[in-house]
Amino acid sequence: MKTALIFGSSGGIGHQFVEYCLAHYEHVFACTRQPQSFQTIEGDNQSKLHMMKLDPSSETELQLFSEYLTGRGFDIQLIINACGLLHDESRNIAPEKKIEDFNQKNFENVISANTLITPLIAKYLLPHLEAGAKAQQSTGVFASLSARVGSIGDNYLGGWYSYRASKAALNQLIKTLSIESSRRFKHCTIIAIHPGTTDTELSKPFQANVPEEKLFTTQYSVSKMMAVIEGLTLEDNGKFYAWDGKEIEW
Length: 250
Ligand SMILES: NC(=O)c1ccc[n+]([C@@H]2O[C@H](COP(=O)([O-])OP(=O)(O)OC[C@H]3O[C@@H](n4cnc5c(N)ncnc54)[C@H](OP(=O)(O)O)[C@@H]3O)[C@@H](O)[C@H]2O)c1
Known about the structure:
alpha/beta
C-alpha cells in the first residue's frame, strides 16, 4: 500500500502536499500538531487520508507513531517535512534586521521548528521508508523543506540570523544523514528542497517587494517540487534542490 507521510500538514505548503499525495498515493498520513487547523479536503480521496495529531519535536510521539506503523502493511514511499518557522507575532518572533535584534529565546524557538524535526523524523521513520521502498522496489524519498537563505555560499544580503542559521544547520544535518543513509538505508534518497517564495502565512509579511510572477501559489510550488521528487534516483541522495530542479549550493 503506497503511502506518504506529510509533517506540518496544517501549514500552507504541507497542506498542499497532502492534497497532491491524496491523488497519487493509496494512503496519506497528514501529521500535524493542530488537526483543528487542518483545512478540510473535499473530494473522492477522503478514505485515503489519515489525520495524525503529532508533535514532531517529541521523540515519544514519533516513537509511538513508528510503533503504530509497524506491521500494518503501509509501504512508506515518501516522507516530507514541511514544518518551519520564520515569524510568530504572538511570541514576538521576527527575523532579525540587525544583531541587536538577536535573542536567545527566539533563536531556540526557530532552531527547534526548523532544524530539530528532520533528524528526529529520520531516527524513528527512516527504517519504515527503507522497508517500504524495498517492498515496492523503488526509491524512498525523504525531503525536508529548507530555504535558499540557508545556503552559506549564497548569502550576500545578511540579516535573518536565526532563520538562516537554522536552515544552514538543517542542510548540514541532511547532508550528514544522506551519507549514513547510503550505507544503511540503501533504497532511500534524502534531500533538502527550496519551494521558492510561496504565498503562505510564513511569507505574508515579506511579500510586498516580491514581483507577482515570483510569488508562487502553493499549488504551483508543490506541483514543481513533486516533479523534482518524483524524478529522484539514488544518485541524487544528499542534494539541495530548488523548486525548478536546479541544484543550490549548500
Ligand atoms: N512560504 C515560503 O515562501 C517559503 C520559502 C522558503 C522556504 N519555506 C519553507 O517551507 C516550509 C513550509 O512553510 P510554509 O510556508 O508552508 O509555512 P506555514 O504555512 O507557516 O506552515 C509551517 C508549519 O510548520 C509547522 N510548525 C511550525 N512550528 C513548528 C514547531 N515548533 N514544531 C512543529 N511544527 C511546527 C506547523 O505545522 P502544524 O501546525 O501542522 O504542526 C506550521 O503550520 C518551512 O520549512 C519554510 O521554512 C517557505
